[in-house]
Every structure is written in structure tokens, then in C-alpha cells.
């Protein structure tokens, strides 16, 4: 059994996280419940930040908050000197509500609305990552109207696509995001921006994929982007100062996954950028990255309560939990794999193979297929590991299921940071039908 971060087993045979008994948490806040191990989040954040600091490289480590966005996580991110990236007015609003320093907020998105762009200017955020030509024109208009400066990067597609252990170099990037680096679009974007006074062009951003377990793909992307910076500098004398290499650092969901330490990814990235900058004779740019999953993924655990069960003789044993695809869409969406335990039976031996099914009206609503656990009974607490990224943030009210509670644990203490939705919450946006009432 692989335990993450501060997870341990206490003398009752229960799973603990951050020194807190998960069975106590289940009783106190109910299930389903997301539990975040703050010590692990902080360790990962420091892993990335320290790796840049050790080599004296100017950097920003921006938490990609789409992985899990809530006031409390922005507060902890601020404590850890992270920057954050947001992809909507909603995430931006949440970060601002949390008091997150606006100069360390970066705004992404392929279709930011005019209102969202105004919101970003009004909050004086640190940087907007421009995705397309339409946005360049919108930003020019807004900056002129407000007579306000704004730092900008352009998002480029470098023709490197990476996922897990594979990466490919694609001739042309068929992506809804960004400007293609090789077909002249990135050059056109640069031309439209670098002489602007209010829009302060800083450099380029690329994001090459997710769950990446090797460093070569990042190095290759870095090479391509630095190469382009050097060409522009040669042609115009303009020195781009920022290279943002996005997120995508892999984490361990199951024994099949073999992630690298944050420091390893960073060290190889720095090496590649330094080499390329030296080869092309340009100054080393600031390096920015945007880890999401690798900051919050394995820090999160979901607690569920076992209800019904069903044995299909010689085929399968189902146990059903009180959540499912409404709090974790990833297995149904892309066949994501997870590990789980019975949190109140940590010292009992695994003897029965189960499929853990959710409670939603979809046959595909299964969290894990074929996992061997101790004998499960009604009322047991199932803990699914590594659910901290893209779990709560992708949660839905499908079947009008209330979204779970979120709890932070650290040093033996626990705190509710997002309360569970109530039935009242579920109907609070609904208005009665009145047409035809005269
Ligand atoms: C632009 C950008 N940056 C960062 C991330 C975070 O990726 P991950 O959670 O895999 O680190 C994403 C994820 O989709 C992204 O699109």
C-alpha cells in the first residue's frame, strides 16, 4: 500500500492525514469529503521554488489553480510565495477574495470576455497571457481606454505534445490555444505587440501536456521558444525577458506512474534554457512554470461511505459509495486510474476484489474497477488517494447531488474550507415558472 505525504495508520487501524484520524473527519464533516494534506502541498511548492533559488535563476512558480480553486488554497499559495494562474473571471474573483497579491496573478484563456479583461485591468494583475489576435486588439483598446499598462505574454504552440512517457514533435500544432510558433502566427503576434507602450510584451508561454514523466519534452519546447526569442532579438533588438513553460509535471496515481521530484524537472529545464540562451547569445530569461496537479494532486484524498453492494456471481462484486462522477469525473471522462483503501480497516488484509461504483444514474459511474480490499461493509469509509487535482474543481451537480465538503489538515488540526452544499443551495438559482399567469 502506497501512502502519500503525512498519511499514516493509527493504533485504531485507521488512516490518518496530517495527524488527524480520517474517521473523525468523516464523522465531523460528513462524506463525500475532500481532505487536503497541507504539509504535502507546501513541500511540493517549496520543491519547485527552491530548485530555482538554488541556481539563482529568476523564476515564478504559478499554481495552476484550475486544479483546485477555493479561497483557502489561494491563501496557502500566497503563504508559500507562489504566483497563481487563473483561467476565468470566476477563478480571478476567488483569488482576489482570498487577498492573493494581484501582481502575482497570471490570466489565461482562449476566449477571455471583455468583462474578464476589464476585471484583470481593474485588479492590476501581474500578467495576461494572450491567446489570439482578437485578444490583442481587445487589450489594445482596453489599455488605451483605461490608459493603463499591462504586462503580457503570448501563448505559443511549439509543436511539442507530451503526455505521460511519450512526446511527439508535431509539424503543425492543431490546437485551440495560442499562436503557432512555426507558421508565422507567433511572429505576427510579436510584431503587433513589441512596440506597444501600454501593453508591455514580456515573452512567451507554452504548455505541452499533462502527466509528463520525463524532462526531455520540456527541454525541447524550451529550445524552440528560446530559439524564437533569439530570432526576434536579432531582427528587432527587442529582448524578451520571460519564458513560461507551463505545467504538466506528472504525479503518482497508481504503481504504474513514476514521477520525478520537482527539483529534477526544474534542474533539467534550467539546463536546457541556459544552454539554448548561451548558444543563441541571448540573456537568460526569467523562467516561469505553472504546476497544477503536481502541487495539489496527491495532497488530496476523498472520503466516502459505503452503502449498498451487489454481487454478480462469478463476474463482479460492486460496492457503492455516496459520491462518484459528480465529485470525480476523471475515471468516466478519460479512464483515469486510482488507488483506494478502507480507511477504518487499514491493518486488515486485502481479500476481496471489488468495483467501487458511484451513486449516479450512469453505468459508467465507477471510481475504481477491480481493487482488492478487506471485506467491505455498510458504513465503512473508503479513501480514494490522489484526488486533489481536477476533482472538486470539476465537480458537478449532476443528478442534483450536492457538492462535497473540503477540509484542510495540518499538524493534527483540521478546518472546513468549503462547506458541503445543502438541498437549499441546489435550488437557490431556480425561479418558479410564472408565464401565462396573467
Ligand atoms: C496553460 C496551462 N498551464 C498549466 C496547467 C496545469 O497542468 P497540470 O495540472 O498538469 O500541471 C494547464 C492544464 O491544463 C494548462 O492548460
UniProtKB/TrEMBL annotation:
**Protein residues bound to pyridoxal 5'-phosphate:** 248, 290-293, 390
The reactions it catalyses are: meso-2,6-diaminopimelate + H(+) = L-lysine + CO2
Top-level taxon of origin: Bacteria
**Molecular-function GO terms, alphabetical:** diaminopimelate decarboxylase activity; pyridoxal phosphate binding
Domain Orn/DAP/Arg decarboxylase 2 N-terminal span(s) in chain numbering:
42-296
According to its UniProt record, this protein's enzyme class is: lyase
Pathway the protein contributes to: Amino-acid biosynthesis; L-lysine biosynthesis via DAP pathway; L-lysine from DL-2,6-diaminopimelate: step 1/1
Q: Which cofactor does it need?
A: pyridoxal 5'-phosphate
Keywords from UniProt, A to Z, are: Amino-acid biosynthesis, Decarboxylase, Lyase, Lysine biosynthesis, Pyridoxal phosphate
Residue numbers bearing the N6-(pyridoxal phosphate)lysine modification: 66
Q: Which GO terms describe its biological process?
A: lysine biosynthetic process via diaminopimelate
Q: What are the catalytic residues?
A: 361
The EC designation for this entry is 4.1.1.20
The reply on keyword Amino-acid biosynthesis is: yes
Binding-site positions, substrate? 293, 330, 334, 362, 390
**Does the record carry Metal-binding as a key word?**
no
Function text: Specifically catalyzes the decarboxylation of meso-diaminopimelate (meso-DAP) to L-lysine.
Oligomer and partners? Homodimer.
Q: Which family does it belong to?
A: Belongs to the Orn/Lys/Arg decarboxylase class-II family. LysA subfamily.
Name the record gives this protein = Diaminopimelate decarboxylase
The species this protein belongs to is Kurthia sibirica
Q: Report the gene name.
A: lysA
